[in-house]
Amino acid sequence: MDTQAAPLESRPHSAQRRIDRLLAHYGQSHQHPTNERIHVVAIPAIMLSIVGMLHALHPWAAYAFVAGSLVYYALLRSPMFLVVMLLWTAALLAIVHALGERVLVVSVTLFVVGWIFQFIGHKIEGKKPSFFEDLQYLYVGPLFVADLGLRRLGIRA
């Protein structure tokens, strides 16, 4: 059987793309519909808050963070996800700039509220957040949200 044509579930572990393994593992602790819905809102809010707080510290701190994030996403070798994350990054930076002087207050509020909801979602799920075992899952969360959105559009990245 050609492993490239085999469904993801039947492929040998080594033939699966790294991004597919990361998303599958992340998805194991995000199966409850309420937890999933919370993450779809909270993850973008948290990402916006991080970029916003860094921008309030110094704009170049925010640019360095998003550049580092995009390097991580590029290393996953998924052109579709890289394009989505480039667009997501552009949107985050546009929102941060639009917030102007309110960026710090809004960002801190979003950060605190977003994390509260994330932990509520994991309490409902009954499973701990993935990043407790590996910090790279903090970067996988946005990919999970992007993947859910792409799937709703009928696109498999």
Automatic annotation (TrEMBL):
GO biological process, one term: sphingoid catabolic process
Protein name in the entry: DUF962 domain-containing protein
Keyword Iron-sulfur: no
Superkingdom of origin: Bacteria
Annotated transmembrane regions: 38-58, 70-96, 103-124, 136-154
Keyword tags: Membrane, Transmembrane, Transmembrane helix
Cellular component GO terms held in the UniProt record: membrane
Species annotation: Xenophilus arseniciresistens
Keyword tRNA-binding: no
Pfam family, one: Mpo1-like
